[in-house]
């Protein structure tokens, strides 16, 4: 690894933030993580481990951590944001005064803001006043634990400004992480957010004892409704067939490492939403985003039957059996 003099501030030191911090540091970028808890920040800097998330993985020497947002952002070329989507607005408002005039913001978040229906990149431009050309999104089949274990993965980095995209790509390209570029921010963000809702559905089906045919049906029809919404909102259909669409959908819906799939499995096995929340612990974006995505579907007059049923289940309007029946008993129609 050669140092490239580029600096990144990663907010925060959760599961995916830590993994992307490691990727960037392995790519030669100097990384300062921002953690809310001083014991996490101190442990990362002094022991080179994040005891809250990956106590078994040693972090690179060019990665440190602080609880001070100003110190983390001082001289940063990139601000990488990885916190729950619903807390982005309030947290970013506090950090915004410390963001440099040339800093490029990279969103890792896969959620839609409840109430506004905004994607994370839109919340970022609204809160900071920074133009869309300085806001990139990174999305793909990226289960953090696999990447921390050094297993190969790829992702899509999207931004309207190709120079910014290439700089982010260089700053996170390693022997085990292969980033591709795109200009389709809308497609990448919607692919990432909607797949969480579909993963909830697949988890529920699995928890209810349904087999791989049912799970494949949900994945395939889930991709169809994701693509319908994304295209109606201006995305390119090819993005949804790529890493940030199909790729992420397959990884998340197939892996027991996925928090969304696991949350769904708990529900399918009969746990209440409260019990599933306690059991899952980490951020499960699909649970909150389902209703925001459904509101977007209504606004764009797009049919999203799986999202609708999952939103109804999460609001306890239907039972598991009623949800399954609602999907299977829809009127027959052509596949497209
Ligand atoms: N874990 C994964 O494998 C992947 C996660 N993502 C996305 O990354 C985003 C973050 O997820 P994870 O890191 O997995 O979640 P996590 O639950 O592991 O970590 C969340 C981080 O945000 C911080 N945080 C929580 N509430 C906050 C608040 N109100 N204000 C500021 N910081 C707060 C926590 O202290 C923690 O550092 C989500 O949008 C998720 O969909 C994307 C790809 C992979
Ligand atoms: O986005 C992810 C993999 O790409 C992680 O999915 P979960 O949030 O369901 O764990």
Automatic annotation (TrEMBL):
<dbReference type="InterPro" id="IPR006109">
    <property type="entry name" value="G3P_DH_NAD-dep_C"/>
</dbReference>
<feature type="domain" description="Glycerol-3-phosphate dehydrogenase NAD-dependent C-terminal">
    <location>
        <begin position="184"/>
        <end position="323"/>
    </location>
</feature>
<keyword id="KW-1208">Phospholipid metabolism</keyword>
<feature type="binding site">
    <location>
        <position position="259"/>
    </location>
    <ligand>
        <name>NADPH</name>
    </ligand>
</feature>
<dbReference type="InterPro" id="IPR011128">
    <property type="entry name" value="G3P_DH_NAD-dep_N"/>
</dbReference>
<comment type="function">
    <text>Catalyzes the reduction of the glycolytic intermediate dihydroxyacetone phosphate (DHAP) to sn-glycerol 3-phosphate (G3P), the key precursor for phospholipid synthesis.</text>
</comment>
<keyword id="KW-0547">Nucleotide-binding</keyword>
<feature type="binding site">
    <location>
        <position position="259"/>
    </location>
    <ligand>
        <name>sn-glycerol 3-phosphate</name>
    </ligand>
</feature>
<feature type="binding site">
    <location>
        <position position="144"/>
    </location>
    <ligand>
        <name>NADPH</name>
    </ligand>
</feature>
<comment type="similarity">
    <text>Belongs to the NAD-dependent glycerol-3-phosphate dehydrogenase family.</text>
</comment>
<dbReference type="InterPro" id="IPR013328">
    <property type="entry name" value="6PGD_dom2"/>
</dbReference>
<feature type="active site" description="Proton acceptor">
    <location>
        <position position="195"/>
    </location>
</feature>
<keyword id="KW-0444">Lipid biosynthesis</keyword>
<keyword id="KW-0560">Oxidoreductase</keyword>
<feature type="binding site">
    <location>
        <position position="36"/>
    </location>
    <ligand>
        <name>NADPH</name>
    </ligand>
</feature>
<keyword id="KW-0963">Cytoplasm</keyword>
<feature type="binding site">
    <location>
        <position position="248"/>
    </location>
    <ligand>
        <name>sn-glycerol 3-phosphate</name>
    </ligand>
</feature>
<dbReference type="InterPro" id="IPR036291">
    <property type="entry name" value="NAD(P)-bd_dom_sf"/>
</dbReference>
<protein>
    <recommendedName>
        <fullName>Glycerol-3-phosphate dehydrogenase [NAD(P)+]</fullName>
        <ecNumber>1.1.1.94</ecNumber>
    </recommendedName>
</protein>
<feature type="binding site">
    <location>
        <position position="110"/>
    </location>
    <ligand>
        <name>sn-glycerol 3-phosphate</name>
    </ligand>
</feature>
<feature type="binding site">
    <location>
        <position position="258"/>
    </location>
    <ligand>
        <name>sn-glycerol 3-phosphate</name>
    </ligand>
</feature>
<feature type="binding site">
    <location>
        <position position="195"/>
    </location>
    <ligand>
        <name>sn-glycerol 3-phosphate</name>
    </ligand>
</feature>
<dbReference type="InterPro" id="IPR008927">
    <property type="entry name" value="6-PGluconate_DH-like_C_sf"/>
</dbReference>
<dbReference type="InterPro" id="IPR006168">
    <property type="entry name" value="G3P_DH_NAD-dep"/>
</dbReference>
<dbReference type="Pfam" id="PF01210">
    <property type="entry name" value="NAD_Gly3P_dh_N"/>
</dbReference>
<keyword id="KW-0443">Lipid metabolism</keyword>
<keyword id="KW-0594">Phospholipid biosynthesis</keyword>
<feature type="binding site">
    <location>
        <position position="37"/>
    </location>
    <ligand>
        <name>NADPH</name>
    </ligand>
</feature>
<keyword id="KW-0521">NADP</keyword>
<keyword id="KW-0520">NAD</keyword>
<feature type="domain" description="Glycerol-3-phosphate dehydrogenase NAD-dependent N-terminal">
    <location>
        <begin position="9"/>
        <end position="164"/>
    </location>
</feature>
<feature type="binding site">
    <location>
        <position position="15"/>
    </location>
    <ligand>
        <name>NADPH</name>
    </ligand>
</feature>
<dbReference type="Pfam" id="PF07479">
    <property type="entry name" value="NAD_Gly3P_dh_C"/>
</dbReference>
<feature type="binding site">
    <location>
        <position position="285"/>
    </location>
    <ligand>
        <name>NADPH</name>
    </ligand>
</feature>
<feature type="binding site">
    <location>
        <position position="16"/>
    </location>
    <ligand>
        <name>NADPH</name>
    </ligand>
</feature>
<feature type="binding site">
    <location>
        <position position="53"/>
    </location>
    <ligand>
        <name>NADPH</name>
    </ligand>
</feature>
<feature type="binding site">
    <location>
        <position position="140"/>
    </location>
    <ligand>
        <name>sn-glycerol 3-phosphate</name>
    </ligand>
</feature>
<feature type="binding site">
    <location>
        <position position="110"/>
    </location>
    <ligand>
        <name>NADPH</name>
    </ligand>
</feature>
<comment type="pathway">
    <text>Membrane lipid metabolism; glycerophospholipid metabolism.</text>
</comment>
<feature type="binding site">
    <location>
        <position position="260"/>
    </location>
    <ligand>
        <name>sn-glycerol 3-phosphate</name>
    </ligand>
</feature>
